[in-house]
Amino acid sequence: MIKALDISLSFNGTPVFSKLSFNIDQGDNVCFSGPSGTGKSTLLMMLQGYVLPASGTIRIAGKKLDAVNIRQIRQKMSYVPQNINLPVGNGKELLKLMGRENNALLTGGFIEKLGMPANMLYRDFDEMSGGQKQRIVIAICLSLERDIVLLDEPTSSLDDESVGRLVRVVGNLENTTVVSASHNHMWMQSAAKVIAL
């Protein structure tokens, strides 16, 4: 599903990672781990083609990650950033913005599995805690049913109980490749593979 071969990246002449290679199979749950500044979040952006490696190649679903294939590759992905800043007031409006209003029922199901009532989809983000907002956006991301789900620090605003619920929800996904960046111990333990950066 995702193959990286000898990819390297530097910022302002400082190496972030060098000659990094990894294989991620379809349906895998893989976590990039490491201290701050090791390139975890940057690597998730690289898998979407927003950051290009200085050298090396990335192939996703058999296609080289380049300008020719990038749009088709992105259509296979959904992504939740670490810092969630949205141009809408609630989850329902976010679905509308994405042209996915019909996903409300499915999204509500994921919201309930993540420990909240389904009608949280309609509550203003300004009235939510950081953890509630994070779970709403993750539920929307999962409802898109893309082949690849990218999660940047998905547990950063969650307590242990909520992390456990998220672990179970992700573990029950079928044929979905989950790639995350995290240093949360419980989350890392749930991954099939941890790639240390």
Give a quick precis of the structure.
The chain is of the alpha/beta class and 197 residues long.
Describe this structure in words.
It is a single chain. The chain has one domain (2-196): Rossmann fold, CATH 3.40.50.300. Helices cover 31% and strands 26% of the residues. The protein is built from seven helices and nine strands. The strands form two sheets. The chain has a five-stranded parallel beta sheet, with helices on both faces. Strands 2-1-4-5 form a four-stranded antiparallel beta sheet, with no helix packed on it. Strand 7, helix 6 (160-171) and strand 8 (177-181) form a beta-alpha-beta unit. It starts with a strand and ends with a strand. The mean pLDDT is 94.
Produce the secondary structure layout:
Blueprint: E1 2-11, E2 14-24, E3 29-33, H1 40-47, E4 55-60, E5 63-64, H2 70-74, E6 77-80, H3 91-97, H4 104-113, H5 130-143, E7 148-152, H6 160-171, E8 177-181, H7 185-190, E9 193-196
Parallel strand pairs: 3-8, 3-9, 6-7, 7-8
Antiparallel strand pairs: 1-2, 1-4, 4-5
Helix pairs in contact: 4-5
Integer tally of domains: 1
Number of helices: 7
The biggest beta sheet is recorded as: 5 strands, parallel
CATH superfamily: P-loop containing nucleotide triphosphate hydrolases
Report the CATH C-level class. Alpha Beta
Secondary-structure class: alpha/beta
> What would the principal axes of the Cα set say about the shape?
globular
| Arrangement of strands in the largest sheet | 6-7-8-3-9
- How far the N terminus sits from the C terminus, by CA atoms, comes to 20 Å
Estimate the helix proportion, in percent.
Answer: 25-40%
